[in-house]
Design goal:
about 270 residues, alpha+beta, 7 helices, binds adenosine-5'-diphosphate, EC 2.7.13.3
């Protein structure tokens, strides 16, 4: 896509035609582009405006819950439910804001060498606090020398979404393995679990916005259906691809393959 000026956006394509000819196609996509921009701005603005009222409601709920006077069981249930729902909405708004940030084009100059081993270890450490009662067995295999040129917050968001999904969807006492190493000439971040797996017909739709395989189960886990859409956009900015290997009933592996041109060494 090439912006010819502020108003006009053309999609230019060369398509092979026969053995010795090519077709040149130019399509005016200015309107689609403007509508896309309006949608993105609208979602970002609404999400931003929702943050303040949510913080106020959450503050009042927490204030009532921490009051010295014991609440009777009815009101205790009311405020616990309010707290759960406000937290869900808070997470959804946060994910919408992250998505609108990663949907826009980035400035390649902002990329830095990211110490991936350090970042991944911190994410795994933090994740031990999520769903502690499930007592997962979490193992890692991390190449300490392997770094990536990229955007810190975006990569953190992509990796943490894959780890928190494995934790959310893997039942109690399941095994989750996180690895960061070379695979051929690519760098590869993988999160493997022995959870429920995903049916083949759903795999291709997982990175769509708001797509959730099982809406009721995802609601229980506090899911919004935006996590993998965020991962997809982050990878578009990083010469990287997502592969999903999953067997229904046996588990899933989500792998990010980074192109050799992003790879840096920490030694
Ligand atoms: P959500 O916020 O619902 O987790 P995601 O975009 O992160 O949204 O994931 C989309 C859907 O993919 C989830 O609702 C879930 O059905 C499925 N999914 C993601 N990760 C896993 C996993 N590790 N095991 C099983 N299903 C998964």
């Amino acid at each position: 896509q090439s912006p010819v000026n502020n108003e006009l956006m053309l999609e230019l394509r060369l398509i092979p035609y026969g053995t010795d000819q090519v077709l040149f196609l130019a399509r005016d996509i200015s309107k689609i582009h403007r509508l896309e921009e309006m949608r993105r701005d609208f979602v970002a603005n609404v999400s931003h405006e929702l943050k303040t009222p949510l913080t106020v409601v959450r503050g009042y709920v927490e204030m009532v819950q921490s009051t010295e006077h014991a609440l009777d069981p009815y009101w205790l249930k009311v405020f616990t439910t309010m707290e759960t729902q406000v937290s869900r909405m808070d997470r959804l708004v946060e994910q919408l804001l992250v998505l609108s940030r990663v949907e826009i084009n980035i400035d390649e100059d902002e990329k830095q060498v990211i110490n991936m081993p350090k970042m991944i270890k911190a994410l795994v450490d933090d994740s031990q606090w999520l769903n502690q009662e499930k007592q997962h067995q979490l193992t890692t295999d991390i190449d300490e020398t392997l770094a990536i040129e990229g955007l810190d917050n975006e990569l953190k968001s992509a990796c943490s979404n894959l780890i928190s999904n494995a934790i959310a969807y893997t039942p109690a006492e399941g095994h989750i393995h996180v690895s960061w190493k070379k695979s051929g000439n690519k760098a590869c971040f993988s999160v493997k679990d022995d959870g429920p797996g995903i049916r083949p017909e759903h795999v291709n739709r997982l990175t769509e916005r708001f797509f959730r395989v099982d809406k009721s189960r995802s609601r229980d886990t506090g899911g919004s259906g935006l996590g993998l859409a965020i991962v997809k956009h982050v990878l578009n900015h990083h010469h990287a691809e997502l592969a999903i290997n999953s067997k229904w009933g046996e588990g899933s592996e989500f792998i990010i393959y980074f192109d050799p041109k992003c790879i840096k060494s920490l030694n």
